[in-house]
């Protein structure tokens, strides 16, 4: 790991249930690698709001919710005992609809946010909404597969389409990648392949080279497959450490029309995926 890491404050968001605790371990290792402070936000849905019309049901629901919050906080705090880095653990305990906005506010003060991926939450809908909310902070947000072992980024694949989000992702990658890293600029179904223009891919690859990185432009044919799957398959085949992509935050209807590349990548991870909005 470079001694001049730009990562000084890491945020990880979990629900604190048993299947989320490996993400706490991953976050501890990642923050330790960067000698960064770590904030762990443990989110718990307050079920009492759904039972507000019935006083007895409300009381029972709030007791159950509070007990779960306390249990999950205790489990996460136990997981962080005796760590050598600065760690803060606190709870977000609210109605499910309010939690993503509160987490978004937390993300605004971090250098990078980590989110455990599919299968590591009690309720997957909450995971998805939190992931989408963090995209709007502008902080690089990493969706973590359970198999990830934190390490330096020596090889990254950048999904490129010359959009503003792609430029932001490229800039973020300059801060995340190790010196002399290999960065492949992957362009799916690029109309500039025959002319050699690559929709700006050559210029961004040249910028990486000027910063001391190797790699180049890698045009890829989708062959009719989803762009999200094509990018992930390419990154996995190339044994990249991460896939980096400009995340699109749009309305649900428009995202559906566009094919939902961002949403598909949020919902399916074969390697760590870094989103930058």
Automatic annotation (TrEMBL):
<dbReference type="InterPro" id="IPR006016">
    <property type="entry name" value="UspA"/>
</dbReference>
<feature type="domain" description="UspA">
    <location>
        <begin position="7"/>
        <end position="92"/>
    </location>
</feature>
<protein>
    <recommendedName>
        <fullName>UspA domain-containing protein</fullName>
    </recommendedName>
</protein>
<dbReference type="InterPro" id="IPR006015">
    <property type="entry name" value="Universal_stress_UspA"/>
</dbReference>
<feature type="domain" description="UspA">
    <location>
        <begin position="210"/>
        <end position="277"/>
    </location>
</feature>
<comment type="similarity">
    <text>Belongs to the universal stress protein A family.</text>
</comment>
<dbReference type="Pfam" id="PF00582">
    <property type="entry name" value="Usp"/>
</dbReference>
């Amino acid at each position: 790991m470079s001694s001049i890491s730009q990562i000084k404050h890491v945020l990880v968001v979990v629900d604190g249930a048993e299947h989320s605790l490996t993400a706490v371990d991953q976050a501890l290792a990642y923050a330790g690698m960067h000698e960064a402070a770590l904030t762990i936000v443990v989110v718990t849905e307050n079920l009492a709001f759904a039972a507000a019309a019935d006083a007895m049901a409300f009381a029972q629901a709030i007791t159950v919710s509070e007990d779960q919050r306390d249990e999950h906080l205790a489990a996460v705090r136990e997981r962080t005992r005796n760590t050598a880095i600065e760690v803060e653990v606190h709870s977000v305990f609210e109605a499910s609809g309010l939690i993503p906005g509160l987490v978004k506010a937390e993300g605004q003060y971090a250098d990078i946010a980590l989110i455990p991926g599919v299968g590591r939450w009690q309720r997957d809908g909450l995971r998805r909404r939190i992931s989408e909310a963090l995209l709007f902070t502008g902080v690089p947000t990493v969706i973590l597969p359970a198999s990830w072992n934190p390490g330096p980024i020596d090889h990254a694949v950048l999904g490129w389409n010359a959009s503003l989000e792609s430029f932001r992702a490229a800039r973020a990658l300059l801060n995340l990648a190790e010196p002399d890293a290999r960065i492949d600029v992957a362009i799916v179904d690029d109309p500039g392949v025959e002319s050699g223009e690559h929709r700006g891919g050559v210029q961004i690859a040249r910028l990486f080279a000027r910063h001391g990185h190797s790699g180049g432009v890698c045009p890829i044919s989708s062959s009719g497959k989803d762009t999200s799957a094509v990018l992930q398959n390419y990154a996995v085949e190339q044994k990249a450490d991460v896939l980096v992509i400009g995340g699109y935050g749009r309305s649900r209807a428009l995202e559906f029309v566009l094919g939902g590349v961002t949403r598909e990548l949020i919902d399916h991870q074969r390697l760590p995926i870094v989103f930058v909005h």
